[in-house]
Amino acid sequence: MTGPTRPRTPRSPHRASPQLRLRIGFVLIAMVLSVFAARLVQLQGVDPENYADMAAAEGSDTILLPATRGDIVDRRGNPLAVSIDGRMIVADPALTADDASQLASFLARRLDLDYVEVLERLRMEDSRFQYIARQVPARRAADVIADAEAKGFVGLFTQRDPVRIYPSGDLAANLVGFLGTPRKDGSARALAGLEDAFDDFLSGADGEAHYEVGAGNQLPLGDHTVTPAVDGSDLTLTIDRDLQFFTQKVLQQTVEGAHGESGIAVVMDSRTGELLALADYPTYDASQPQEWPKSRYKSSALTDVYEPGSVQKVLTLSAVIDAGLGRPRQQYVVPPVLNRQDRPIHDHWVHGIEHLTLAGILAKSSNIGTVLAADEFAPGVLREYLTEFGLGRQTDIGLRGETKGILPAGAEWTDQVDDRIAFGQSLSVNAIQMIAAVNAIANDGVRIDPSLVKGSATLDDGTEIGTDQADRRRVVSAEAARQTALMMERVLDPDDGVASIARVGDYRISGKTGTAQRVSDRCGCYDGSRTSSFIGFGPTDDPRFTIYVVVHDSRAGGGSVVAGPAFAKLMGYALRRYSVPPTETEPSRLPVEW
Amino acid sequence: MSSTAPQIRSRLPRIAEVAVRRARLTVVPRPRTRPRAARVPFVTLVSVILLAGVIGLLLFNTSMQQASFRATTLEQQAADLTAQEEALRIELQQLHDPQRIADLAQRRGMVVPTGASCVLSLDGGITGSCAPAPPGNKLPMDPPDPQRPAALDPEPVTVSADGAEGRNGARNGVPGLDRRR
User: Fold this and answer.
1) In a domain, A306, yes or no
2) Among the three residues A165, A181, A203, which one is the final residue of a domain in this structure?
3) Does a structural domain hold residue A235?
4) B136 CB near a chain A CB, below 8 Å?
5) Same domain for A276 and A148?
6) Is-contact A536 A547, C-beta < 8 A?
7) What is the gyration radius of the CA atoms in chain B, in angstroms?
8) Which residues in B lie closer than 8 A to residue A221 (C-beta atoms)?
9) Full residue range of the structural domain in which residue A99 is found
10) Chain B contacts of A84, Cβ < 8 Å?
């Protein structure tokens, strides 16, 4: 019974038993399952929300709803700074390198760019992102991209890049300031002026829309949440654009004509304290700020201090009258030289013994007479008056970097300093302080806080400022203010005054010249240069405008010659623009001599 | 008495017989079913409702999708029109620029009057005396030239006549600060 037997396959010596192989298989399966389990724990236990969000992000889209930055407008709603939708045009050099020369030629022509620079960017190696142009108005960018695609160019795309436009260039640039290149997220980067001081007020808050998309379109029944953007508020200034333009031009003409270093011109509404024009020279173009040095990105009328000179006599003599220490017709004997403690005091003209009234002291701008009149003050009283007039304190009209000036206090206020302060030396002011102080005389002795912002607006530090917050407080009596105004009118008298050059047609105008020694920035001492100025208001018996013109380092003469004509032009323009008729009353006939 | 007993005897087996008969299991006759309702109309009705629902939903979805496409198109159109409006607004502002107007006026020989002695009062009369504006009373229309920071205004590189390499003058474009991105 030995049948054919199937030959037995020899077992491989390397092959384990089935049980062993099964065990190995099970172990492998267990290991794989363990990995799966660990991954499951990781997904569900460690950070499930993150993964859920990632899953939700697939097939959904979130777009930023940018808040529109508020405009900065003048008192009549004319724009000084406006925001429009813009795009950055970006190239992917990996796609543009082949047609770089033709594309560069096209872009340079359409966007006014430098051909060589664009060509370099289009050919940039190892880069997928090159700026071609930034802050291009959306309409123009769309046209350029569409035309480029029509010509067969590829590799250009756009991203949001809001544009801030300053339509009037250098008009009120020192006040408005400017925005720098936007940040990567498209938000504005305020760098100077009101743009910087009111950045939060103007910016608003961006919103967000989240929705599910399919093939680039929103899914109708998908999730859809919208957080609307809150647009920034408009900032309305008290500035009158046309008057500001004229003021800047007149100031430029004046400073250049006097070969001066710099100048300031301010026009204020006498009744409200609103600044209708505030010009600094030299200035810069807010639409191309990079072309000018950073030192121009400020308003000198607020940031720079100087000694006011004889315009200060208006404040001193109004205080003398208010304190009952003098009257416009009060008689003074003015010697050629007044020898005081440390040095003799002179007048700006050589004279013998003059017999001047208080009005004459102001009309002829006598330093000696002013010191004699102010001698009647008890210690500290003059300083109290000047403090009430607002000297030595910031005006807080909204721009950053304002100086509070220098008004000596305590032991610094010596008798010598007291004498010099009476006629406008040894103290420092900024131009807005000074015009607000003299405007108190125009406004029946009530000082009104100067305002640059109409209504109310919130600074970044939370302070509310504007015409709604402007305080009024009486500094001198209405009678003292009226008497001072009449004395100031004598300054423009052709026979008795020193500044008939500042007269304005048939209008009654009160004014005062100022020629002060100037402290040099380099040595911190009087270097022989002068600050020439003129301040005044009109019509004298019903003031509507207070105007102040300052020229630093003028080489053409004193306050009346340099700043007087500019004052007359500005006052004439303002009166005509606001249709203010002459009051047709008799001018002041106060005697100047006795 | 004799007649009653046999009656009982004869009745007992009959009761038992009935009991036995009742106890015996028998096949219950199948109850007659009620006449079956016609299935076809019902199925048709359900199918029609189902089909109408599906088609309605499809149409609704399609219409929603079309509305979505249209919304996207209209949004794009609105963005384009907004950009167009902004461009026109800028153009208008540039036309209103006092610098431009003053420049044009001055080129036509107009000057700004310095005085203010001619004021029309409400009754149409003239107050004060009128005087012509002096012809030399022109304003400086050109702002002073820019003063670039030194970094933007390098010394021009002069090129020697023998053909040495060099770039003549500074670029007037925006500095390439972003090139390294």
Assistant:
1) yes
2) A165
3) no
4) no
5) no
6) yes
7) 56
8) 61, 64
9) 85-165
10) 83, 86-87, 89-90
Single residue among A123, A145, A165 that ends a domain in this structure: A165
pTM for the whole structure: 0.78
Separation of alpha carbons A552 and B140, rounded Å: 19
Cα torsion A320, A326, A330, A335 to 10°: value is -60
Q: Is B146 within the bounds of a domain?
A: no
Residues A264 and A132 in one domain: no
CA separation (Å) from B147 to A293, A574, B151, B154?
A: 7, 31, 11, 12
CB within 8 Å: A217 and B69: yes
In a domain, A13, yes or no: no
Chain A stretch 287-326, residues whose beta carbon is closer than 8 A to a beta carbon of chain B? 288, 290-294, 296
Q: What is the Cα–Cα distance from A198 to A543, expressed in whole angstroms?
A: 32
Per-residue pLDDT tens digits for B77-115: 888 888 888 888 888 888 888 889 988 998 888 887 766
Provide the phi-psi class of A577: left if phi over 0, else alpha when psi is between -120 and 50, else beta: alpha
**The dihedral formed by the CA atoms of B100, B103, B106 and B112, expressed in degrees to the nearest 10:** 70
**What's the CATH code of the domain at A496?**
3.40.710.10
Question: How many domains in chain B?
Answer: 1
pLDDT in tens, A419-453: 889 898 889 999 999 999 999 999 999 999 999 99
pLDDT digits (tens, 9 = 90+) for B36-87: 677 888 899 999 999 999 999 999 988 988 888 898 889 888 888 888 888 8
- A484 & A383 share domain: yes
In a domain, A16, yes or no: no
User: How is A281-349 classified by DSSP, letter by letter?
Assistant: ES---TTSGGGS-GGGSS-HHHH--B--GGGHHHHHHHHHHHTTS--TT-EEEE-S-EE-SSSEE--SS
For residues A566 and A534, give the distance between their C-alpha atoms in angstroms, rounded to a whole number: 9
Residue of A nearest to B149 (CA): A293
Please state the domain count of chain A: 2
| Domain identity same for A479 and A369 | yes
Do A158 and A275 belong together in one domain?
no
**ipTM value:** 0.73
Residue A339 sits in the same domain as residue A255: yes
Domain containing residue B127: 44-131
State whether B115 and A505 contact (CB < 8 Å).
yes
Residues of B within 8 A of A114 (CB-CB) are: 171-173
Residue B101 burial (CB count, 10 A): 13
Per the CB < 8 Å rule, is B112 touching A246?
Answer: yes
**Using a CB-CB distance cutoff of 8 angstroms, which residues of chain B are in contact with residue A220?**
61, 64-65, 67-68
Q: What is the CATH number of the domain that holds A154?
A: 3.30.70.2110
Rounded to an integer, what distance in angstroms lies between the CA atom of residue A199 and that of residue A459? 8
Residues of B in contact with A250 (CB under 8 A): 139
- Would you tell me which residues 38-97 of chain B have a C-beta closer than 8 angstroms to some C-beta of chain A? 61, 64-65, 67-69, 71-72, 79-80, 82-84, 86-87, 89-90, 93-94, 96-97
